[in-house]
Amino acid sequence: MYKMRLFTPGPTPVPESVLLTTAQPVKHHRHREFREIFAEHNRLLGYLFQTEQPVLTLTASGTGAMEAAVLHAMRRGAKALYVEAGKFGQRWGEILCAYGLEAVPLSVPWGEAPDEAQLEAALCAHPDVRAVFLTHSETSTGTWMDVRALSRVVRQRAPDALVVVDGITAVGALELYMDSWDLDIVITASQKGIMAPPGLAYIALSERAWKQARESDLPRYYFDLFAALAAYERGDTPWTPAVSLIAGVREALRRIAEEGLEQVWDRHARLARALRAGLLAMGLKLASRRPSNATTAVWLPEGMGWESLNEALKRRGITVAEGQGPWKGRVFRISHLGYYDPLDMVAVVAALEDALRELGYPVEPGVGVAETQRVLLQVDMETGS
Amino acid sequence: MYKMRLFTPGPTPVPESVLLTTAQPVKHHRHREFREIFAEHNRLLGYLFQTEQPVLTLTASGTGAMEAAVLHAMRRGAKALYVEAGKFGQRWGEILCAYGLEAVPLSVPWGEAPDEAQLEAALCAHPDVRAVFLTHSETSTGTWMDVRALSRVVRQRAPDALVVVDGITAVGALELYMDSWDLDIVITASQKGIMAPPGLAYIALSERAWKQARESDLPRYYFDLFAALAAYERGDTPWTPAVSLIAGVREALRRIAEEGLEQVWDRHARLARALRAGLLAMGLKLASRRPSNATTAVWLPEGMGWESLNEALKRRGITVAEGQGPWKGRVFRISHLGYYDPLDMVAVVAALEDALRELGYPVEPGVGVAETQRVLLQVDMETGS
Known about the structure:
The structure is a homodimer. Chain A is an alpha/beta fold and about 375 residues long. The first copy, chain A, folds into two domains: about 5-10 and about 260-385, Aspartate Aminotransferase, domain 1, CATH 3.90.1150.10; about 15-260, Type I PLP-dependent aspartate aminotransferase-like (Major domain) (Aspartate Aminotransferase, domain 2). The first copy, chain A, contains 13 helices and 14 strands. In chain A, a hairpin with an 8-residue loop joins strand 13 (about 320) and strand 14 (about 330-335). In chain A, helix 10 runs parallel beside helix 12. Chains A and B meet through helix 1, helix 3, helix 4, helix 9 and strand 13 of A and helix 1, helix 3, helix 4, helix 9 and strand 13 of B.
């Protein structure tokens, strides 16, 4: 018997207390019983985003919040710059294109992220962009982008352009201060760092973004953020929201607040570092040149198919994610985003050692877990915790 | 101590077995463990809609499915006819308008529904409409529309026009055979007749509707039903869906299939009839001239405010819905949509008798519940059950 263990970058595992909260009797969204839950949920989201702005709730997948961001940041005939370095960066381009907008890609190879000079050059060629669309953690490649530094470049080179951040697999995992980093739109979803089931997406806009949104003329109804804002101000949502998931998110956010957001970020950094060390000790190779603390992409060993590795891990109760786009069949991805602790990293490395050995890949039993454990304890010693 | 009892037209009460199913560990939507659940969920949705067409799953509120219907039924420059007889009929008009489409209202007073002659006249004046948007159960007024008869009128008078049905508070409550009634688009949501928490919306298109949708040129991304259809055919959804709610809906649909869909419709008819009889026996007056078996709207007694009635009912654990739009402060609405049995009707009438008496409205104790009970038993005798 193996327990089921989810190591995918969304859905991610959900704490039992959150699951049980979602099973409580459904409340009506326009009555007091729900408004109390929603008000606390909203306060805690402000803490999570590190913003004084309202964080609006959409009943949708994260992609719905991406579309809402485009619909409010852009207007007909406007031009956008977006970073294209993986499947989720490409999605910005697809949404912009679906609305007939001019979308200029800043392309870098998969597994890499643009640096400040590349963004400067792109803005020099296109100083008239209305918004710059970034991906804080590009999940398809397990790659992190320095949103803070890139945002500064936008402020210097295109002062009126909005900085729009896909934080879907980053918020709650990677350091992010929406207000003090001067980000204009940040989005995320419930089934990632928030540690709740999928079904909710979140979006916050800076004052600059709200101002620009008022000029937008793109058609929308369900994703109209002015309707969402008006409802937010009276304590609810314009359409019936996923009330049971909102109750679950409140419970999950209470846990994050109790641990402390900076401690949560540190935990993600520590787990990612320990996992990567274990993988390298087994002779595996990381696919990203700037690994994200949310997800690690690993090259499949030569000659090993994704399906056989997946089946071998499944036999040990482990679910990881396959590669996407051009990396399909070339990488597998292990997530450490959300509800994970050090012992989960030891467990996944142990399962991987075993599965790889079954498939004929040479690993000395214990070499991965020992290195993972060493790094976990070393980080402990360094931080004195 | 009073138990909490929800009598609102969405969210509606959710069976305990469904709630507990939603609390099971989250599964990854692209893995076998979820695909099995999704396949059965999809088969059962076909039974619920009485269609051979795919019923597509959107992670959204019902309004999202309304927008998806507009985006695929219409195209730029096209004209639509919609029935405007309450808040949800108006919403069709609002969505059409948000996309710059010509939207012709067929308006009837709140609490009424158009008959075949009225629709014929409207189509005679506007034979060139691309689609006719109906509301099977107009929840704001508790009014039922004869979708089957109206659909026949469309087929005769405007053979190429699509019949689009908002079945959000009707599917699973009112008789509906999508295929044999030749309906083109039917939508619903999870938190209504389906008896699950809010967060999912459903939409099915006839062959005629799919054909017309291929010509549509309205911008869309998250609500692109061609992306949803392609994913459906390989067993999943284009974006991460609310997997825990889908598991809950499967459990709820199993219950509906076990009871039998026609028995479910009959139950709704019987409960609605018994409730209305109890209300009339108390001297209350129904606000709709064609009461829906999903929700009953009742005029507030003269001089009685919504807030005081609401508070008096809350003290007895009962949540009902207030009026909307022009009926705000004039009606209250009791829902019997989804997970209700005969004893729930007796209970809500008993609470209402008690609350009304507290507020000084003259009711003989027992007069309402006795009449409700008489009708429940009479229907039993008539049907021989």
